[in-house]
Amino acid sequence: MKISDYKKIKDKNGKEVIGNTPIDDLKKEIQERADREKKKKRVELEELEKEIDKLKAEKRTLEQDREIKKDLRADLIKVSAQVRKYTEKALLLAFGSGSEIWIPRSTIHNDYDEKNKSNFQNFLIDTWIFKKRQVEKDSELAVISAIVKV
């Protein structure tokens, strides 16, 4: 029911009232409630916009990380090897030729099972480590035959 539907009643001062409450006071209270609701919605909207901005920034960061990883993959090679030994910082990998090379964990860019010493596993490894360890095509044919550019 709308305020206008009520029969107009006036108090002793001549102001319109509903029950014992002046209509002007009711209108003022309704307006204040509406203002509070608007303010609450505005605050909620601002919080949502901040969250959206935060998510957009995270997305940009993820996209940049993806691009960096993509660039890094150009400098990775995929090899098949067995884990012979391991330490906190490195794995001793054995290749099909029988040669063994210590490879720092920080240069391996995929998941592997360090405790699985009986099976060959695939490793994505920075190419520079093979150059540093002087792994040559001729002397390490088994290694090179397992190397594939990613």
Morphology call: rod-shaped
The rounded Rg comes to 36 Å
Oligomer: single chain
How many DSSP E strands? 8
Order of helices and strands: EEEHEEEEHHE
Q: Number of domains in the coordinates? A: 2
Question: How would you briefly describe this protein structure?
Answer:
This protein has 150 residues and is of the alpha+beta class. It has 2 domains: 16-71; 75-149, no CATH class.
Can you give a write-up of this model?
By secondary structure, the chain is an alpha+beta fold. The protein folds into 2 domains: 56 residues; 75 residues, no CATH class. It contains 3 helices and 8 strands. The strands form 2 sheets. Strands 4, 5, 6, 7 and 8 form a 5-stranded antiparallel beta sheet that branches. It has a 3-stranded antiparallel beta sheet with strand order 1-2-3. A hairpin with a 5-residue loop joins strand 1 and strand 2. The protein is rod-shaped. The C terminus is likely disordered.
